[in-house]
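ok so I'm stuck.
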Amino acid sequence: MIEAIQLKTRGELQAMRAAGLLLADAIAAGRAAVAPGVSTLSVNDAIATAIADGGGTSNFLHYGAQGDDPGFPATICASVNDEVVHGIPSAARILADGDLLSIDAGCILDGWHADSAISLHVGSAPSMEEVDLISACERAMWVGIGAARPNGRLGDISAAIEQSVVWSSRADGRRYGSVAGYGGHGIGTAMHMAPYVANQGKRGKGPRLAPGTALAIEPMLTLGRPGTRMLADKWTVVTKDGARAAHWEHSIGISEDGVCVLTAVDGGVEGLAPFDVTPVSLD
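replied:
not stuck anymore, here's the structure
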């Protein structure tokens, strides 16, 4: 049976916006903590403190817990270099100058979930190809968000992400690997809900995006082939060929009059401007 997409009232989207703003502040605190010589656990702790200080709780910590299995052991996923997603923060994992770090985090505020991710260089920027990789992944996310419309189709978002990766590959003179099997999702009273948002697809296909839909949009790109494998910790996903990877994510809410980027401080104004899309305010 196909799981129904949870629809929110405008007031509920406003509550999700509050959770998104708290998460944006927390990720900013984590980003400020990133530097050569800092452990990924220290970045985790900076974000955990910011979430708690804002009255929220983590939706990553103990995610998937069942029986004797405590689930995911941290507040954030800290994925370094060839780690695509779900890297586990550790006091022993010390960031080095030139590393590529992806921070994925989420929170719950008043029962509503938010989820967001960024990729950044540690210290001085490494090769230009890695600068381009991060930009191409972020662009794909914003293009996907820009394709979301009230009563549009889910496939419009997936197709837009896929086409953005092709565009960036041509513009940069590189063939980026677009990771399949991991993607976005519905979000609301739980972190992972229907529908699954693939990063490849066809326009005009999939369920309609009725007003009240909330989604997390999250492309993942590599500098090599898109194939991945999971490490022995049963969480960390790495590229098979050892190529570096980037990951970007925002949670969005679709109202009757447009889209609000729930986890962007400005609601998505700056990120969507290059694509002639104006987000709506939920106030």
